[in-house]
Amino acid sequence: MSRFSREYSQKCVPAEEAVKVIKSGDVVDYGFFNGKPVVCDIALAARHEELRDVEIHVAVTLPPVPEVVKHPESFVYHDLQFSKISRVLQRDFNVGFYYPIMYHQAPSWFREGVAPHRNVVICTVCPMDAHGYFNLGLHNSATLAAMEESDCVIVEVNPNLPVCPGGAEEAVHISAVNYVVEAPADLALADLPSPEPNEQERTIAELIVDHIKDGSCIQLGIGGMPNAVGKIIAQSDLKNLGGHTEMLSDAYVDMIESGRMNGSKKSLDRYRVPYTFAMGSKRLYDFVDNNPAAASYPADYTNDPRVIAQLDNFISINNALQVDLYTQVNAESLGTNQVSGNGGMWDFVIGSQWSKGGKSFICLTSTFTNSKGELQSRILPTFAPGSITTIPRHMTDYVVTEYGAVQVRAQSTWKRAELMISIAHPDFRENLIKEAEAMKIWRNSNKK
Ligand SMILES: CC(=O)SCCNC(=O)CCNC(=O)[C@H](O)C(C)(C)COP(=O)(O)OP(=O)(O)OC[C@H]1O[C@@H](n2cnc3c(N)ncnc32)[C@H](O)[C@@H]1OP(=O)(O)O
Ligand SMILES: CCCC(=O)O
């Protein structure tokens, strides 16, 4: 038995034992994304009668629904990027809070002591290797920074997590771990396949592909639309593309396996796609397993606009819920209802504009059909009260709908309104013009 295996045996305890370390009032980081613990969560929730005001922090709550949310009197649940689960929890059960983040700063929040002190970090990891390291699998993010600063580290070993090579900070050593908990061998990861792009998404993707050159470096954000763009890129005749992203999604598998993306022209991380978390289908998880085509890095590398700016012809493609006539972008809330989060959007919107030849694309279908079957414009005069502006107007570069791609950067207010109306659904244009007139961002000489 090696010394690491001995240390492992000494630290390996049942989940119920490990979570005894948590006290009322503690701040506990659950691993983000696929790093969310499952057996430790069940064991912690079982202590709800004796605990009060334990803060839990996650990002993008993936299935299964955490057990702690069933006991809001004991656990204060925070999500740094809302998913469907967190939307339902907040909207229908009044449970959970959103936690705004400037993602590239996250590791420094911990290392510089800005974030509330983490008493305990619990996250899923791959089985320990011969050198005593637990690979963090599909999440890197700010995990090591949080662990360094916390009083106690609990790792939940899930043998089904893929081993994801770095990069940097993709593994934690047994010597930095206080407790090891073993998850059952059949604990599967949530399989989240992306739907095939619809006609509008294909049109939008094709409009964006027209702006991409051979050798460009691509970032795709979260959501259905960026995935659609990746699929269309995979079917294009583009060559030698590079990738650099926060989230590795199924679309990267499409772009790499089709031979479109090989990273051969990049000035950083040549032949590899840096990312800070991977989220998608089982196909993606099988793809990243021990695959040097991708590299797991902390968020202060993938998302630092100063890093992004070093990659020439950087094309950033992100999805929005709504854009207003001022060209403000709302990618995260509908009125006061939190839908998602800003995530790394700001980081990539500005980083791509700092890149030589770089462009930022905000894409959205021109309309949304609500649950009553009513068609609503996503291009609005102004957002509903309480909506959050994710990207302020002076940072917006290109906006794309199925009616066109317009560059609003460096344009006046009336010109922006005109450009936005030109890509709105025709049924809504007349009303948008009236609103623009009332808002004093319309000139008589504007196109009618
Ligand atoms: C992880 C990262 O941060 S990568 C770096 C970039 N970061 C970002 O882009 C973060 C911000 N962007 C996002 O979070 C996403 O791209 C989004 C939210 C804009 C779109 O994501 P998608 O998963 O495609 O959203 P989807 O179309 O499913 O809409 C989400 C919800 O809002 C509802 N919705 C969307 N648009 C509207 C609208 N105009 N009016 C009313 N409801 C709407 C949908 O019905 C859905 O509701 P439900 O699932 O609760 O029933
Ligand atoms: C920490 C959350 C960041 C994201 O999901 O983009």
From TrEMBL:
<dbReference type="InterPro" id="IPR023990">
    <property type="entry name" value="Butryl-CoA_acetate_CoA_Tfrase"/>
</dbReference>
<comment type="pathway">
    <text>Lipid metabolism; butanoate metabolism.</text>
</comment>
<protein>
    <recommendedName>
        <fullName>Probable butyrate:acetyl-CoA coenzyme A-transferase</fullName>
        <ecNumber>2.8.3.-</ecNumber>
    </recommendedName>
</protein>
<dbReference type="GO" id="GO:0006084">
    <property type="term" value="P:acetyl-CoA metabolic process"/>
</dbReference>
<comment type="similarity">
    <text>Belongs to the acetyl-CoA hydrolase/transferase family.</text>
</comment>
<comment type="function">
    <text>Coenzyme A-transferase that converts butyrate to butyryl-CoA.</text>
</comment>
<feature type="active site" description="5-glutamyl coenzyme A thioester intermediate">
    <location>
        <position position="246"/>
    </location>
</feature>
<feature type="domain" description="Acetyl-CoA hydrolase/transferase N-terminal">
    <location>
        <begin position="6"/>
        <end position="184"/>
    </location>
</feature>
<dbReference type="Pfam" id="PF13336">
    <property type="entry name" value="AcetylCoA_hyd_C"/>
</dbReference>
<dbReference type="InterPro" id="IPR046433">
    <property type="entry name" value="ActCoA_hydro"/>
</dbReference>
<dbReference type="GO" id="GO:0005737">
    <property type="term" value="C:cytoplasm"/>
</dbReference>
<feature type="binding site">
    <location>
        <position position="321"/>
    </location>
    <ligand>
        <name>CoA</name>
    </ligand>
</feature>
<dbReference type="InterPro" id="IPR003702">
    <property type="entry name" value="ActCoA_hydro_N"/>
</dbReference>
<keyword id="KW-0276">Fatty acid metabolism</keyword>
<dbReference type="Pfam" id="PF02550">
    <property type="entry name" value="AcetylCoA_hydro"/>
</dbReference>
<dbReference type="InterPro" id="IPR038460">
    <property type="entry name" value="AcetylCoA_hyd_C_sf"/>
</dbReference>
<dbReference type="InterPro" id="IPR037171">
    <property type="entry name" value="NagB/RpiA_transferase-like"/>
</dbReference>
<dbReference type="GO" id="GO:0008775">
    <property type="term" value="F:acetate CoA-transferase activity"/>
</dbReference>
<dbReference type="InterPro" id="IPR026888">
    <property type="entry name" value="AcetylCoA_hyd_C"/>
</dbReference>
<keyword id="KW-0808">Transferase</keyword>
<dbReference type="GO" id="GO:0019605">
    <property type="term" value="P:butyrate metabolic process"/>
</dbReference>
<keyword id="KW-0443">Lipid metabolism</keyword>
<feature type="binding site">
    <location>
        <position position="344"/>
    </location>
    <ligand>
        <name>CoA</name>
    </ligand>
</feature>
<feature type="domain" description="Acetyl-CoA hydrolase/transferase C-terminal">
    <location>
        <begin position="280"/>
        <end position="436"/>
    </location>
</feature>
<keyword id="KW-0963">Cytoplasm</keyword>
<feature type="binding site">
    <location>
        <begin position="221"/>
        <end position="225"/>
    </location>
    <ligand>
        <name>CoA</name>
    </ligand>
</feature>
<dbReference type="GO" id="GO:0006083">
    <property type="term" value="P:acetate metabolic process"/>
</dbReference>
